[in-house]
Amino acid sequence: MDTMTAILDAINGVLWHQNVLFVLLAIGVMFTIWSGFSQFRALTHGTAVIRGKYDSKSHPGAINHFQALSTALSATVGLGNIGGVAVAVSLGGPGAVFWMWVVGLVGMALKTTEVTMSMLYRDTSDPDNPQGGPMWVAKRGFAKMGLGWLGSIVGGIFCVTLIISTITGGNMFQSWNVAQITSTYFPSIPREAVGIVLALLVGMVIIGGIKRIGAVAGRLVPFMCGLYLLAAIFVLLKNIDQVPAMLGMIVKGAFNPIEAQGAFLGGTFGYAFLWGMKRALFSNEAGQGSAPIAHSAAKTNEPVREGIVSGLEPFIDTIVVCTLTALVILSSGAWNREAAASFETTPNMVRVDSHPACGGPCWIPDTTVLPRKTPEAERNSKAWRPNDQLFIIVHGQHDTNTGRDLHRVVGKVVEPRAGELAIEWTQSYSGTDAPRVVGPQIHLNLPGASLTGYAFDRVTPGMGMVIVTLACWLFALSTMISWSYYGEQGVVFLLGRAFVLPYKFVYCLLIILSTLPFITTDKQLDDWTALGTGVMLFANIPIMLIFGAQAMRAYHDYVRRLKSGELDRAAHAAPPITDVVEGKDVR
User: Fold this and answer.
1) d(CA 494, CA 507)
2) pLDDT tens digit string along 107-129?
3) Whole-structure pTM value
4) What is the dotted CATH code of the domain comprising 14-54+79-334+459-586?
């Protein structure tokens, strides 16, 4: 595992170099200005479009605007909003949330541009299976330039990155987090059982293609978002006096180092910027090129219309859902939580030549005795149970990311003999010099969605178990369903439709394999998801820069006709909302 982590670190170090993030941010600002702040059009005209005022049965496509948006949202509003935000705040601090906001706002322009581009080049020759996305933009766009061979190569490269992201972020991240949160609250349920149930549920939906995916997403997304948002608002109302201070901390932390406190190890400006950008891009997929695949199935004769609708995604995903999750974690104190237990005396670190935690020479604590939790910790998260994760903090080598010399040494609760619980150290310290343990305090290790669940439990014990566990299942299911379709389109482009059924089988099998406990920390979880998001950005952004001018010309022409009233002449009264949700208005 250490070797794989080192490889992923090296790759992600290139994909997510700070200069790359600055360039991406600049591209988002460029399209924001070029489009004349398309964010405004998304929030106004886009809302009218999804209400069904412009829907028509005669338009090319398979699903209406609302279902297309719901399908894309079901991929973006997922565990990135619950687990991803928790990772960002846990490692990058409150300042990471500010940079998530920035990405959310410029991401609205990025999403509008890339979806418009894909709608211009989509293939609707098969009405039941419209095809679109950056691979088709590359193939058809370069062909118009007389460079069809180059388009096939560029489109193929994008599809390879699409499949990598499908496996990692669209599958592994989702199923692993569901298994993690379920085993946290219900330790008697095997992780493998979680994977099998998820695979069966996903399989029953994706076998029906984009129309069934759109129908399920149209019903599931509003319900799951509404449920989660109501729970988050309830928590914030109980902590309303802390919200203004949290908002101030978010802005301050975006530009200034945050000191270590409690379970938080500290974070520099660069680290907050990195985590905010990474998690927001993973969550809302702006510039990644995935959402255009879903939107290309929309019934419309105006390519820009669906592009404007897609601008709503980053707003809903990042500005609304991610922000509420972050405020719950911050206002509850979960991000810098106090110790859950303490050793009688501060342990020492001893050097071992070989240990499962490191695979070679490393440092681990000299004790495996598990102290009892504090009464407050037992109220929030119950007594220790097997497989609970914990960590202690040590002084070691300087970490440029946190700006401190602090590191975590992670362990889990085991039951070596009947009736006794102990600590098995699963992640060591591998520096050359002996580290020094900060103190006797033991903190709960809560990777991903577990931290969000714990934040709800700190406000109302048991709430995280019900709300976050249910939300994780719903969010993960919706995301895996949509991402299976994205990966399927990549397979079709590369290999043809004959390989779709084997692909769906492998996709469901990976859901089960991903629930196996081979990832134990926030860092390991991020390594995999960052890989998938990063490679897609590297493949899609050049396509956007080459063909983005065409999207902008079409966008400004559409806005001109919208302002003149020409487009409204084809509009009609909004159909019943039930017909829009079920897609009956376009059947």
Assistant:
1) 16
2) 999 999 999 999 999 988 877 77
3) 0.84
4) 1.20.1740
